[in-house]
TrEMBL record:
<feature type="binding site">
    <location>
        <position position="51"/>
    </location>
    <ligand>
        <name>substrate</name>
    </ligand>
</feature>
<keyword id="KW-0057">Aromatic amino acid biosynthesis</keyword>
<feature type="binding site">
    <location>
        <position position="87"/>
    </location>
    <ligand>
        <name>substrate</name>
    </ligand>
</feature>
<dbReference type="InterPro" id="IPR008242">
    <property type="entry name" value="Chor_mutase/pphenate_deHydtase"/>
</dbReference>
<feature type="binding site">
    <location>
        <position position="83"/>
    </location>
    <ligand>
        <name>substrate</name>
    </ligand>
</feature>
<dbReference type="InterPro" id="IPR045865">
    <property type="entry name" value="ACT-like_dom_sf"/>
</dbReference>
<comment type="pathway">
    <text>Amino-acid biosynthesis; L-phenylalanine biosynthesis; phenylpyruvate from prephenate: step 1/1.</text>
</comment>
<feature type="domain" description="ACT">
    <location>
        <begin position="299"/>
        <end position="376"/>
    </location>
</feature>
<keyword id="KW-0963">Cytoplasm</keyword>
<feature type="domain" description="Chorismate mutase">
    <location>
        <begin position="1"/>
        <end position="91"/>
    </location>
</feature>
<dbReference type="InterPro" id="IPR010952">
    <property type="entry name" value="CM_P_1"/>
</dbReference>
<feature type="binding site">
    <location>
        <position position="38"/>
    </location>
    <ligand>
        <name>substrate</name>
    </ligand>
</feature>
<dbReference type="Pfam" id="PF00800">
    <property type="entry name" value="PDT"/>
</dbReference>
<feature type="binding site">
    <location>
        <position position="10"/>
    </location>
    <ligand>
        <name>substrate</name>
    </ligand>
</feature>
<keyword id="KW-0511">Multifunctional enzyme</keyword>
<dbReference type="InterPro" id="IPR002701">
    <property type="entry name" value="CM_II_prokaryot"/>
</dbReference>
<dbReference type="Pfam" id="PF01817">
    <property type="entry name" value="CM_2"/>
</dbReference>
Length: 394
């Protein structure tokens, strides 16, 4: 292909990409109109049957124009997830009149480019109000900022699919009066970031947050003799490498974050597990109402009485009320050696009868129980049946 022919094809691709964006924006606008109807008529946000039907049809249509089913499925899962999350945000706003602020002052760990920063951007991009970023040095500082009304929200990483729970954050939640008002999961894609083009073999010093080192331990073992420097956040690690401008130092962080500091990725997918995601809590001083049309989760902390089977008894309460537990974590209680505080997440809305019954029963069974929050669940599990059906048909 000659240079001019290449230019012409690229021009056409550019035009099509712009058209795709226009169409995506129009689709989003229409799904927002659907959300308004759902608010008016009290209809659930998610309609899995409708999703199945449209995906099934699209996979078949895609095949007719030479697009493979996996590709079509992936693209539309992303589109539908976006539409569901936007609608949920609209319903949540409607259920909490007067709670929207012109400025959302949000405290998070690190600075521009940290994973918490990217999660913060993602969560607040769906919400009204201007985002005011307040990067902090520690989880304690983040929580204090909201407690002292210097910030309105905090975004806190709570668990990661590779390295597990973030104990420091759990411990902060034990002592605070703040409420969990939201959750989100964000893919964590670690890359090796450098300030100038260099080979991996040249790297002598590596900067990263301890959680990141834990998630990339296999890669570190392969690297061998490299000095590891732990930093307060991924953003600090990237800043250090950017300031040093040397070809023998690197940071581990996201490629998107690194680009904010002029860093380039020389290797990607460094995490031990391919599916590396972090889950974040969004916390605030006041709890929120979660509309019943939106899937909700509730998080409680409790300490059980010291007798055999006390935890089993407590968990049976969830089973008896048909509540699906999605997470159980335990942490030591400061000052009471060998006693544990249990953190439980389950699917359910605090406004709903079964959740209220369960909380009342748990209060009677436990020594201490506190609801940390009820919030919209942001895990939009993709529909799978359509893809499977379409794949088995011609
Ligand atoms: C837009 C709607 O809401 C949700 C999103 C859908 C979509 O993006 O196509 C489909 C079904 C619902 O789960 C709808 O109900 O039509």
């Amino acid at each position: 292909m000659s240079d001019t022919a290449l230019d012409a094809v690229r021009k056409r691709i550019t035009e099509l990409d712009s058209q795709l964006l226009t169409m995506l924006a129009e689709r989003r606008q229409l799904t927002n109109e659907v959300a308004e109807t759902k608010i008016r008529h009290d209809i659930p946000v998610r309609d899995v049957k409708r999703e199945e039907q449209l995906l099934f049809r699209l996979i078949k249509e895609g095949k007719n124009v030479g697009l493979d089913p996996h590709y079509v499925t992936q693209v539309f899962h992303v589109i539908i997830e976006d539409s569901v999350l936007n609608q949920q945000a609209m319903l949540a706003e409607h259920a909490n009149p007067g709670s929207t602020l012109p400025l959302n002052r949000v405290a998070f760990l690190g600075d521009k480019g940290s994973y918490s920063y990217l999660a913060t951007q993602k969560y607040f991009s769906r919400r009204p109000g201007e985002l005011v970023e307040m990067g902090c040095q520690s989880f304690a500082e983040i929580v204090q900022k909201v407690e002292k009304s210097e910030a309105d929200y905090a975004v806190l990483p709570i668990e990661n699919t590779t390295s597990g729970s973030i104990n420091e954050v759990y411990d902060q939640l034990q002592h605070t009066q703040l409420s969990i008002i939201g959750e989100l999961t964000h893919p964590i894609r670690h890359s090796l970031l450098v300030s100038q083009d260099t080979a991996i073999a040249n790297i002598k010093t590596l900067y990263a947050h301890p959680q990141v080192f834990a998630q990339c331990s296999h890669f570190l073992a392969e690297l061998g003799n490299v000095e590891v420097k732990t930093m307060e956040s991924t953003a600090h690690a990237m800043m250090a490498v950017s300031e040093l401008q040397r070809d023998d130092v690197a940071a581990i962080g996201s490629e998107a974050g690194g680009s904010l500091y002029g860093l380039m990725a020389i290797k990607s997918n460094l995490a031990n597990q391919k599916e590396n995601h972090s889950r974040f809590f969004v916390v605030s001083r006041d709890p929120v109402n979660v509309p019943l049309q939106v899937p909700a989760k509730t998080t409680v902390i409790m300490s059980t009485v010291q007798k055999p089977g006390a935890l089993v008894e407590a968990l049976t309460v969830l089973k008896d009320n048909n509540l699906n537990m999605t997470k159980l974590e335990s942490r030591p209680i400061t000052g009471n050696p060998w006693e544990e505080m249990f953190y439980i997440d389950f699917e359910g809305n605090l406004e709903d009868g079964p959740v209220q019954t369960a909380v009342e029963s748990l209060k009677k069974l436990t020594r201490y129980l506190k609801v940390l929050g009820c919030y919209p669940s942001e895990e939009v599990s993709p529909t799978k049946v359509a893809a499977a059906k379409a794949l088995t048909q011609d």
